Amino acid sequence: MRLILLGAPGAGKGTQAKRISAKLGIPQISTGDILRENIRQGTELGRKVKDCLEAGNLVPDDMILEIIDERLRREDCRTGFILDGFPRTVAQAEGLERLLERMGTRLSAVVALEMESEALVARLSSRHTCRDCGADYNATQAPVPAACTKCGGEVAQRDDDKEATVRHRLEVFEEQTAPLLRFYGDMGSLRRVNGMAPMDEVYAAIVGGLD
Ligand code: ADP
Questions:
Q1: What pLDDT, in 10s, does the model give residues 163-174?
Q2: Residue list, ligand 1 pocket, CB within 6 Å
Q3: Among residues 2, 13, 36, 123, which one is catalytic?
Q4: pTM exceeds 0.90, yes or no
């Protein structure tokens, strides 16, 4: 199963990708997580992309494609993968097509999680994230713990989840990522799922439509 989860920031891609990954036994590949891990570890890549992430702008396509190229070649991707947060531009989607062709394989499905933008702003501005394992906590649902209940790491608001940056990320999504709906729609591989529904229903809708 080679799956792409498309959707605006906060649409629930990460949450759903983790569940599907556990169910199908294939890795979740989140370019956002990979970039944040590089920033945390102070690698050369991390130093190059830090300002982009903080401002809510996209990292250049060639850097992202290099990361994906290296990641998809690893052994654990042989039977499939779930892409979460990639591709984010038409150029990245075209790069992915070339890469899959070289690997002699193709996508199984592209699922778009659809949400209203005010709901996204509300979700992201109340989201707190573990700096170590990436677990999400939502301040509107329950008090946010100071230490992660899964790994004990520090829980804080992501720098790019401040409201002004969230609004900018949504503009970037509309301008640069939304055209992918057309790209995959034209290829005949797109399925739309209502991301506003409760988490379990969204999950059932995604998994129910997979072959
Ligand atoms: P979200 O889906 O909540 O916006 P991500 O963790 O997917 O969060 O991404 C966070 C940031 O990482 C983005 O705003 C962008 O700066 C960078 N990023 C992640 N994936 C990509 C990508 N495929 N292309 C360019 N930049 C990316």
A1: 899 999 999 999
A2: 9-10, 31-32, 35, 52-53, 56-59, 64, 85-86, 88, 92, 160, 169
A3: 13
A4: yes
